[in-house]
# Entry
Amino acid sequence: MSKKSQQSTKAAEKPKVEDSKPKVEKNEAPQKESKRATTIVITSGKGGVGKTTTSAAISLGLAQKGFKTVVIDFDVGLRNLDLVMGCERRVVYDLISLINKESNINQTLIKDKRSENLFILPASQTRDKDALKEEELEEVMNELKAQFDYIICDSPAGIEKGALMAMHHADKAIVVTNPEVSSVRDSDRILGVLSSKTKKAKETDESVEAKLLVTRYSPERVALGEMLSLEDVKDVLSIPVLGVIPESKDVLQASNSGTPVTAYSDTQAGQAYLDAVERFLGQDVPLRFITPEKQSFLKRLFGGR
Ligand SMILES: Nc1ncnc2c1ncn2[C@@H]1O[C@H](COP(=O)(O)OP(=O)(O)OP(=O)(O)O)[C@@H](O)[C@H]1O
Ligand SMILES: [Mg+2]
# Structure
């Protein structure tokens, strides 16, 4: 079946999050012998564009592929990732207690209940971003690098301390952007920061490899001229596209139920994130969900999505 016909078939029988059980695949564990994690920052500049949603989705996607992955909430004072991952009741220690040596890695990391390869390092809710101390953070990152294949850093919004600390150790960046002018402008700004303020940029000639993830994309609204198109966003940011995630109420429902949307592999948003994970791992996967869905005659007649 062609991707196009797959897309329209899937759209026609689009499952609801509440109807579908999260699917967790068996791990194949293609793990490296001695680990030296790749660190990925999920960043944006602008707030509320989908960084935490993306951090949760990509980290579960990588873990399901067999990679030992830790996802770190850098949003000190406003932690959110634990809710999206559904582990808020299990938070005892956090990134700041770890940095301050009030806890150790084993005590602090929370094992995900869906994948044995996935661990969550929550943010502190009671401290502020000044508690993120550079040298101590470096020690923690080095310890994690030795144990994991991937470290995903969920950045807070803005370009202040928290965001700078989240990107400091990054090898790669996923720049989350909504198809609107202010989000694109802030992403452009963050690309400048990534190429000047990270450890990699400062200490080597290499820059952090940045890829674009356009989220909350609605092809129907693009066609109506209400939203920037993927081409418009690409023209401004000029970085390779990792994926396009459709606007979908499944995302909110998944996060309300404390589950990364990639666990719902029968939803379009889940599929789009899983495609992005494949592309991240080097597979050539065509983009989906970027053209308006053709509505059937009956759907047009009676309405509905
Ligand atoms: N593809 C999507 N479709 C619909 N809603 C989405 C999508 N992606 C994210 N959202 C919603 O947007 C809101 C913000 O998402 P999220 O918390 O991931 O953003 P953020 O960039 O981490 O925000 P902050 O900058 O405050 O940390 C949430 O309510 C989330 O459910
Ligand atoms: Mg967030």
